[in-house]
Amino acid sequence: MLVLSRKAGETIWIGEDVEIVISEVKGEQVKIGIRAPRNIDVIRGELRQDISKSNTEAVIKNIDIFKKIKD
User: Fold this and answer.
1) Phi and psi dihedrals of 32, rounded to 5?
2) With a threshold of 0.70, does the pTM exceed it?
3) Facing residues of 7 across strands?
4) What are the b/e assignments for 26-44, b being 16+ CB within 10 Å?
5) Name one GO cellular component term (predicted).
6) E strand segments, the chain
7) Which of 10, 28, 57, 71 could form a disulfide linkage to 6, CB 3.0–4.6 angstroms apart?
């Protein structure tokens, strides 16, 4: 993991297309802006975990349904 220190107004680039802008630093909270092409999904980490968990639960339910049909 790369760890960088940035001040408000400074940026970080990821590749040629993604720019992260530090908008504000207030106490322990940092506000960032992200400029990325529309074809790149940008999602908060906790939402990604929730989606992954929901997808896993859906797969398990489908497997259970298929097992009942098979029997």
Assistant:
1) -125, 155
2) no
3) none
4) eeeeeeeeeeeeeeeeeee
5) cytosol
6) 11-14, 18-26, 29-35
7) 10
